[in-house]
Design brief:
185 residues, alpha/beta, Rossmann fold, six-stranded parallel β-sheet, 16% strand, globular
Length: 185
């Protein structure tokens, strides 16, 4: 069974992490969730669900301060990690290797084990330091995948946007979702 770590940071766009958990459940992928404290704060501003309701979407949930959790070890086999949304702070911690929480430690482990790390970075505009950090992470093996609307699909709702954006990112793990609208030419 496929196993994906889902990280949710405090950037705007918590719906992306929620939708990732939902889509992964629909296709039978085991999910391991870690949320930052900032993510819990942002959740209350953006969605009409509780942190417990969001956590219930995952198979396994880890406290962000538990740096000794299974996902903090390279011997814990996964197919990789998705951070959706990914704040600039989280991205920067991963790039420098200064991993102060389980969220960034798990991402660091995924990189060192040469597994897939996908960051749905949520920030705009970007200054040169952000761009350099993204380049550094890309050179380290991470995939930078900001959520960008695929207007050609005719999306009309936030749910359609989240489904399309997350579905395309799951493609990077070899996980196909039938809800993704594909370009037909």
């Amino acid at each position: 069974m496929a196993k994906i770590i889902v990280g949710i940071s405090g950037a705007s766009g918590i719906v992306l992490g929620l939708r990732a958990l939902q889509l992964l459940r629909e296709v039978g992928v085991e999910t391991h969730l870690v949320m930052s404290k900032s993510a819990e704060l942002t959740l209350h501003h953006e969605l009409d669900i509780s942190a417990d309701e969001l956590r219930a979407q995952a198979d396994v949930v880890y406290p962000v301060k538990n740096v000794g959790a299974a996902i903090a070890s390279g011997s814990f086999l996964t197919d990789g990690m998705l951070i959706a949304p990914c704040s600039v702070r989280t991205m920067s911690e991963i790039a420098t290797g200064v991993t102060s929480t389980l969220l960034t430690r798990a991402a660091d482990v995924v990189l060192k084990e040469r597994r897939r790390l996908v960051l749905m970075v949520r920030e705009t505009p970007l200054h040169t330091g952000h761009l350099r950090t993204m380049t550094q992470l890309s050179e380290m093996g991470a995939v930078i995948a900001p959520p960008v609307p695929a207007f050609y699909t005719g999306i009309e709702t936030l749910d359609e946007f989240a489904t399309q954006s997350v579905g395309r990112v799951l493609d990077l793990f070899g996980i196909s979702d039938t809800a993704v609208r594909r370009w037909q030419g």
